[in-house]
Amino acid sequence: MKKTLLSLFLYGFLSNAIAGGNIPFMFIPLPGCSGSQTFTTSGTFTLPSDCSSFTITAYGGGGGGGGQETADNTAGAAGGSGGYIVVSYSSQTPGSYPVTIGVGGAGGASGSTLAFGGVGGSKTVIQNTTATTMVIAAGGGGGGGGGNKITAGAGGNAGSPGSNGSNGTGSSVASIGGGGATVSANGGAGTSGATAGTGSAQACTPGTYTGSYSGDGKGGAGGVGYFCGGGGGADSGGDTSGAGGGGGSNYILATNATITSNTFAGSVSGLGGAGGTAGAGTIGGAGKVVITYP
Fold first, then answer.
1. Residue-wise burial string across 165-183, b where 16 or more C-beta atoms lie within 10 A, e elsewhere
2. CA distance 190 to 167
3. Per residue in 206-234, pLDDT tens?
4. 3-state SS string over 22-59?
5. How many domains does the chain have?
6. How far is the C-alpha of 255 from the C-alpha of 249, rounded, in Å?
7. Residue 184, helix vs strand vs coil
């Protein structure tokens, strides 16, 4: 009751004073929790002190396109799309959240008799204030290199946790695409007449697990994610093109999370590079992160 009477007294006093011109009118904005930060390069997201929730939209890097084999004028194949995640978090601690943007995979080089597969895209990662990983948007697989007038295999798109990522498309029996990664294992290697590449553990880097170098077409590398896609099989007998690498797997920390989307990229960011039609394949699209709060 006393607080109510005091509030009424102060309101009446200030209203009369302002109306009489004795006190200049001032607008004092109240603190609020509203804003957005966009990252196209790696950096740090700062959650304001009066905020405890935010929404992350993340894209992984796209896989590079395969190179053209110029002797037969055979195009390389496109790389796969990077991961696409939209997730909202509540009950979060204000402070600094590291953001690492996944780069697109390099395009495969062209050659008169040996065209190279594209490199897999890199993962985009967001961590919390204690350096715990919250989100990984995986990279897409690299496209296979062209060879001997046979269609090269496309790179696999990044996959969702709990299911396989898209497999790289095999161009023939002799050149099979790399498997998509899951949340618990790397994708299997694509097969060919020679030894094909494989994915490696979570810390793997692009370009270290491509398909074998034998023959005209070289397999694309797997995409990097929570786990990595397998490398595409390479041409084994000089009669086919390389196959695409599998996509990496996405990851979302489930604590206090509401997931809206967990798939592969559906916009310009994180798309795979085009296969080479008059030379080398193009680089995959770079990743991106947009964080809005609350």
1. bbbbbbbbebbbbbbbbbb
2. 9
3. 444 444 444 556 788 888 888 888 788 77
4. CCCCCCCCCCCCCEEEEECCCEEEEECCCCCCEEEEEE
5. 1
6. 19
7. coil
Beta-carbon neighbour count of residue 113 at 10 Å?
A: 13
Q: Which long-range contacts (CB under 8 A, 24 or more apart) does 35-40 make?
A: 35/292, 35/293, 36/290, 36/291, 36/292, 36/293, 37/290, 37/291, 38/288, 38/289, 38/290, 38/291, 39/99, 39/101, 39/288, 39/289, 39/290, 39/291, 40/101, 40/286, 40/288
Do you find a cis peptide bond into 294, omega within 30 degrees of 0? yes
Q: Cα(11)–Cα(259) distance, rounded to whole angstroms?
A: 46
Residue 100 lies in a domain: yes
How far apart, in Å, do the first and last CA atoms of the chain sit?
A: 35
Task: Tell me which residue range forms the domain holding 40.
Answer: 36-294
Task: For residue 187, give the H/E element and its range.
Answer: none
CA distance 146 to 276: 8
Within-domain flag for 184: yes
Identify the residue whose tokens are 């009669």: 239
Q: Which residues pair with 52 in a beta bridge?
A: none
Residues 205, 193 contacting (CB under 8 angstroms): no
pTM of the model: 0.81
The pLDDT tens digits for 98-150 are 999 999 989 988 888 778 888 888 999 999 999 999 999 999 888 888 877 77
Residue 29 lies in a domain: no
Whether residue 40 is contained in a domain is answered as yes
Q: Which two three-digit tokens encode residue 99?
A: 């953001």
Tell me which residue of 138, 163, 104, 288 sits closest to 225, measured CA to CA.
138
**Lookup result for tokens 């929730």:** 53
